[in-house]
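Minutes, project check-in
Item: structure for the 148-residue chain
Input as provided by the requester:
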Amino acid sequence: MNNHPYLRAYLAGVFVTTLILPLMLTAFIVLRLVLQLPVPIERGLIFPMALVPAGWGLWNMVWLASHRLTHLAVGVHGAVLPFLLLPCGAIAARCLGVLQLGATSATWFQYVSLPYVLIGAGFCFGVAAYYLVWKYVVGFVNRELGIA
């Protein structure tokens, strides 16, 4: 099964986000429409819904292409992805007017303010979560598709 390994790598990377993002969309709809949260959440959905699945697929293709040279485990490779997504997401949020950066905290939608210490702790949790998801889920799909 050596036909189109990069296409299979892309599909394996997209698999996880295709399952998770509809659940996130459901939560956002409940917050916005059912609980009447006065935050324009739909402006913040543009980046994750459009770019994150493609980013995961492309990142898995990069892993496949570089694995022969680097011998990097898929979990470690996946844990590097938040270091690319966070700056891209912050730039997109700033350009869309969703994020304002202050001296000690960041404010989303001019409504939710979080101190940088809490954002850093959340980022560390996210890196660990990415490692586990890439190691167990994406790695499993890669093995099932015959590219690992």
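Outcome recorded: The first strand starts at residue 99 and ends at 101.
No further action items on this chain.
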